[in-house]
User: Which sequence fits this backbone?
């Protein structure tokens, strides 16, 4: 059975039709107002056992909470007859501030995670940060995200993104329009570079709660001809393939799927210095910049100046994928 928190996720259409698929709520989380979101959180916190019994009616050998938050909380409900596994994608050092709210959250999360047999992390840095915050002795393991290489290559050629080609570098990023992705910072840096004569274009594929705010900033800085919010795309791969560079210049990351997808498409990748750099170990076509406005500005300026001379090396991700599959099989008890 596949249980998700909210409906209308971007990968729902890709699920096998034979999967027993259920959602706790029928809308996207962003469609609910603040009061409804608070009530949802309280319901899960106070009545998770009732929710668990309502949706998990059959006996399962393994239960996997594949995303932090509500589902991890619900599946932590007691059941001695099942093996419980929680997947952790987030860099927790960025989500735990020294405030009363986060101290309470830390206490609650620690109780939740202690109920799992195995905790799986998508990067070594995420595991290390978790160990600093939560002193618990669960079985822990790092398994990088798996990607269907053939599917990415095939879908990248489904259509042509038709990005403009006139010797001006095109940068693309695929990201949710949320604070952690630092897109307002990126727009400001883009404006500074354009003003200084370093012509380039940015295409952002994705949607999110900050869309209106970012659109206003683009209009305010008169960037409508060089910085584009393309919206959510069911298939973002042609945009990545057609661009000159893929960027992910966030404040924080886990091990982003978009980086792995861009590696498969053999793109030159530019990221900020955070835990996502683990995804690029051994990958030659990359530039890691300091995670600051000056660091990103200097890194992008260098790329734009050297744009005609940047060479791309051929790479392969197949060996890593085989290793990931074997780790997952062993975890689930193949």
Assistant:
């Amino acid at each position: 059975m596949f249980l998700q928190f909210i409906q209308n996720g971007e990968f729902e259409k890709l699920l096998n039709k034979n999967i027993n698929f259920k959602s706790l709520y029928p809308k996207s989380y962003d469609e609910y107002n603040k009061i409804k979101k608070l009530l949802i959180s309280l319901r899960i916190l106070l009545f998770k056992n009732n929710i668990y019994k309502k949706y998990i009616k059959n006996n399962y050998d393994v239960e996997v909470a594949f995303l932090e938050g509500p589902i991890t909380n619900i599946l932590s409900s007691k059941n001695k007859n099942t093996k419980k596994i929680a997947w952790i994608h987030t860099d927790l050092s960025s989500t735990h501030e020294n405030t009363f709210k986060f101290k309470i959250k830390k206490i609650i999360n620690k109780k939740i995670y202690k109920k799992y047999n195995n905790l799986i992390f998508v990067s070594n840095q995420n595991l290390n940060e978790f160990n600093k915050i939560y002193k618990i002795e669960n079985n822990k393991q790092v398994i990088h995200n798996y990607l269907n290489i053939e599917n990415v290559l095939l879908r990248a050629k489904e259509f042509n993104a038709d990005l403009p080609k006139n010797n001006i570098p095109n940068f693309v990023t695929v990201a949710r329009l949320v604070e952690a992705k630092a897109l307002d910072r990126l727009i400001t840096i883009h404006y500074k570079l354009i003003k200084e004569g370093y012509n380039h274009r940015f295409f952002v594929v994705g949607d999110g709660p900050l869309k209106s705010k970012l659109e206003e900033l683009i209009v305010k800085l008169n960037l409508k001809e060089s910085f584009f919010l393309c919206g959510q795309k069911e298939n973002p791969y042609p945009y990545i393939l057609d661009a000159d560079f893929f960027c992910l210049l966030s404040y924080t990351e886990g091990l982003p799927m978009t980086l792995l997808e861009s590696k498969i498409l053999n793109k030159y990748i530019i990221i900020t210095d955070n835990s996502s750099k683990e995804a690029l170990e051994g990958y030659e076509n990359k530039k890691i910049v300091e995670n600051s406005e000056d660091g990103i500005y200097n890194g992008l300026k260098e790329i734009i100046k050297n744009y005609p001379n940047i060479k791309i090396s051929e790479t392969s991700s197949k060996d890593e994928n085989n290793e990931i599959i074997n780790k997952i099989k062993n975890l689930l008890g193949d």
About this structure: The mean pLDDT is 88. The chain has two domains: 2-142, 149-309. The first helix runs from residue 34 to 55.
